[in-house]
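Just curious: can you write a single protein's sequence together with how it folds?
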Amino acid sequence: MTKKTRMGVPSKKKIPKSQLNLENAMMRPIDEIADHLCGVVGAIRGHFWVELADGTVIDPYFEQYDAIKYMKDLEGDVLRRPVGQDIQRSMMIKHILPIMKQLKKPDFRCHFEGLRSLVEMGDTLDDNNFRGGYCHANSVINKFVYGKDAKIVYGDMGWKLKGKNEIFWEFEDGWDGKHDTRINPIEMLRRLNSHKKYRNIIMENFV
């Protein structure tokens, strides 16, 4: 599975199923689960996240986001906008249910029971254990970990344009594939080339 964004399609590193030690699931990082499920579904333009009954949002944050914000001159906290129920239902059937069927298998049970125990004791999962570009897999993992009070939501995600009361949806379900004229491509590349760390992040994940 690769997640299509306005930055393009992230590169992906697949781990052969033969290398996955299912008997020691508690010892392997969450991102190997995402690799195991890679290729199950097609590209996603929007974004998946999890919401708890009290409104708390569970959604891993990655360095790629900071790089995108810097390059496109965006600011502020992450903004999210759920899509309509018909699209929600369609995306759940197409992108979420296939992963849930995989993760309900006994092979993964001890892994999630261990993670759930940590959360019940008041701990939180480290964002570094998740994989950027795999929001569908990340949200399913969080759904299993946080239990029945957790709800998977699909919609758009982005940030405000710096100095403006306008939102740029980096991950937008209804994106038509055209360049947003509010983002100057020449200025965008200039900013990226001026920041070595963010340039490397973009090159490693989207080129």
Q: What stands out?
A: The two ends are 16 Å apart (CA to CA). Helices lie at 30-36, 63-72, 85-103, 109-120, 135-146, 185-193, 196-206. Confidence is low (pLDDT under 50) at residues 1-5, 7-42. The beta strands are 47-51, 57-58, 74-82, 151-161, 167-171.
